[in-house]
Amino acid sequence: MTDKEFKRLSRSQLIDIIYQLQLKQEELTADNEKLSQALADKRLRVSKAGNIAEAALEIHNVMQAAQDAAAHYLEEIQIRANNEYQRILKEARDKAAAIIEKAKGQNPEAAKRILIKGAAEISSEAAKVFASSGILLLGNESQTVGPEDEPMEVHLILLGANIILLEGIRLEQVSEGVYFLNAAPLNLSGADGSPCRAVLIAADR
What's the pTM? Predict the structure, then answer.
């Protein structure tokens, strides 16, 4: 795998690679134990070794070298995977910070309520940036503000910062800018969320 292909791997793919390598390491360790046991139970005929002890030592050294090489390879892959994972986390934090700063540049007060256009997915690292920024509302077009396969962590981070979530809105025909948002929810007793009809009105009207 080239460095370019490796950098394109997603977080889940990196975790799966590490998991598969760990399984391989366990298999190599198990195979080494089986071979060591075989050396104790069977007589090996060798041409180079003068006796069984020398043969066992030679094979043990070969197996030890192979295991050391496998462990070194696993460690290298884990380091590369971790570096790539840290790069992805930093990129998520930087993008969230850039969104906030751009919104503040247009209108500091309006920047407290941010709507994200497109198929955006907020990671937990980006959610922490939004949560610490003091915004009051975060909206997006997807049906969940976090990853669809594991949205709970992102929701807890944002809701824990008292940020209102507005999910599933349609912004395809909305240009970037400052708007007045009307998104009154239905008065549902005992519910922690509600459908609403969100409407944007241009602020300059």
Answer: 0.58
